[in-house]
Amino acid sequence: MATRKSNALVPPPDVVQAMQALDASMASPADPITSLNQDPQLMQDFLVEAREHLSTIEARMLEIEQGAQNEETLNAAFRSFHTIKGLAGFLDLGVLQEVSHEVESLLDLARTGQLMLDPPRIDVVLRSGDYLAAWLNHIEEAQQGLQTRTPPPPAGLLEKIRAAASPDQSSQPADAAGAPPQQAGEEPGTAKQGPRGETSMLKVETAKLEYLVEMVGELVIGQSMLRHTPELGDVKSPRLQRNIAQLTRVTAEVQKTAMSMRMVPIGQLFRRMSRLVRDLSRKSGKPAELEMRGEDVELDRTIVEELSDPLVHMLRNSMDHGLETPAEREAAGKPHTGRIRLTAAHQAGQIMIGISDDGRGLDRNKILRKAVERGLAQPDAVLTDSEVFHLIFEPGFSTAERVTDVSGRGVGMDVVRKHINRLRGRITITSQPGSGTTFHLEVPLTLAIIDGLVALVGGERYIVPIFAVREMFRPTAGQLFTVENRGEMALVRERLLPVLRLGRRLGVKPRSEDPCEGLMIVGESGSRTFCLLVDELVGKQEVVIKSLGETFHGVSGIAGGAILGDGRVGLILDLSTLAAGVSHAA
C-alpha cells in the first residue's frame, strides 16, 4: 500500500529515539509519537525560557534569605515556577510539571502568610531548582542524540517539598521574612506592577548574531582599505571626500551597534556567585556575605562566560583560605560574618573586576618557603611582594596543610591564570596580613576588536596589544648589558629587564642587529616584565581580530591576525607566550 509523503518537519531518527526514551523515563501518559515535545523548536524555546526562570528563582530566593522586604520578590519566584509548570504540562514533561507544582504550592503558602520561608525551606526550593536544571540538561542532551544519564526519580525531593509545606507552630509569621500576606481581593499569582517601559525584546539565535558581527567586521576592514587607497588620495573632488567621510561615520556607528549587541551586564555572572558563596558558607561553617557593586557594567558575552571558572576558583579559595573561622575572627576583633566583595568598573577601555575578602591575607613568607621547596624560586632570590604573590598561580602550587573538597590541590589558581591570559587580561594582587586580599582582574571589553601598536620588524608588521604595553623608548649603549646566564638586559628606571629580540624569536631578519637603532617596547604579562626589541613603530590602530585557522594553530607567540588599513596582514603578538621564554627581571 502506497503512502503519501508529508511536508511536515520530521526530526532526525536519533533525536526521535532519544525523545521517545525521554518520554518513557518520565512516564508521560502522552503518546510519544504525537507529543508536542517532539518538535525541536518548541523544546529549544522551552529550554531557553525555563533556564531564565530558574535563574530568576535562584536570585529571588537568595534575596529573601538575605532579608529582602519586597512582596514582588516572592511573587516573582512563584510566577516562575507557575510558568515552568504550565510549559512542562503543555509539552507533556510530567516530572517537571509535578515538581514545579509542588514548589508552587509551597510558595503560595508563603505568599498568603501561612508559613515562613526560613533557610531550610529556601534550601528545598533551591534544590528543586537544581533538580529541574538537571532535567533541562538531560532533555537538551537527548535532543542532540547524546548518551545521557536520566536524573533520579523525584520521590525523595517531592517528600521534602511536601514536608516543607507543612506549617509548624513554631514558625514566625511569613511577613517577618519579607513576604507580606496577599491583599484581600487580589488574584493569586498577580502582584502590583511598576510602570513598564516601552522597550521590547527579540530573541535571536546566537549563530546569526555572531555572523552579523563577523560581517560588520568585514565591512569595517573594507571601509578602512577604501579610505587608505592611494589612488583616492590623488582625487581632489570635495564631493568624493564628503561621501567617504560619511561612509566612515556610518560604518563606525554600525560597528558600535553590532558590538553592543554582544554586550551583557556582568551582574548575571555575579548573581550566580551568590549561590556559590551561600553553599560554601554552609559547608565550611564560616558565615559570609557577598557584596556586589557594578552589576550594570557590560562586556562581551564570551568574556562573561569565560570569567565564570576563574571567579568560582577565586571565591572558593577566599572561603577556604582567606576567611577565618568565627572563633578566629572573634579573637582578631573582626565581625562574626566574613565579607567578600565582587566589583566591576570601566577604566581606560578595560573592565576592572575586583574579588576581595576581609580575611587573614596572604602569608608572604609561607608562599616563598613553599615556592623554594618546589623549586619555583631560588633561596636567595630577592622578589617583590607582587612577584611572591604571583607564585600562587604556578601549576600545583598550594599552601594548604590539608586537602579539602573545596580547595587545596593546587590546581585552581593555575586555571585562573590560563583563563585570564586567554582573555588577553592580567591579574594583580594586593594583600595585607590580617586585613584581607584583593585580586584585580583587567580584561578587555570585547574579544572581537583590539587596540594595538603596529610595529615593524624587517618587512613584516606585528600588532602589540596596547593593554600589555607599559612604555616605549629608544635604547642607548649605556642602558644595554649582558648578564651571565641571563642574556641581554636593559636598564629601565633603575631595573634590569630581559630583552627579547622579536626578529630572532620569529625568524625574521631585522633592519639592523644594533639594538640602539631599534625601539624597545616594555611589555608585561602576569608578573613578568620585559623589553621587546623591534625596528620601528608604524602607528596605533584598532583592528578586527581574525583567526589564522588550523594551519597556524598553536604557533608560539602569535595570537591571531588582522587586516590593516592598507590591506596588508599584521600578526597579533601573544605577549604571555613570549614572556614565558625570557628570564625574570632583576
Structure description:
With about 575 residues, the chain is α+β, with helices and mostly antiparallel strands. The chain folds into 4 domains: about 160 residues, Up-down Bundle (Four Helix Bundle (Hemerythrin (Met), subunit A)); about 55 residues, Helix Hairpins (Orthogonal Bundle), CATH 1.10.287; about 180 residues, Heat Shock Protein 90 (2-Layer Sandwich); about 130 residues, Beta Barrel (OB fold (Dihydrolipoamide Acetyltransferase, E2P)), CATH 2.40.50.180. It is about 40% helix and about 20% strand. It has 17 helices and 18 strands. The protein has a 6-stranded mixed beta sheet with strand order 10-14-15-13-12-11. The protein has a 5-stranded mixed beta sheet with strand order 2-4-5-7-6, with helices on one face. It is globular, with a radius of gyration of 29 Å. The N terminus is likely disordered.
Short description:
By secondary structure, the protein is of the alpha+beta class. The protein folds into 4 domains: 13-168, Four Helix Bundle (Hemerythrin (Met), subunit A) (Up-down Bundle); 206-261, Helix Hairpins, CATH 1.10.287; 264-444, 2-Layer Sandwich (Heat Shock Protein 90); 449-579, OB fold (Dihydrolipoamide Acetyltransferase, E2P) (Beta Barrel).
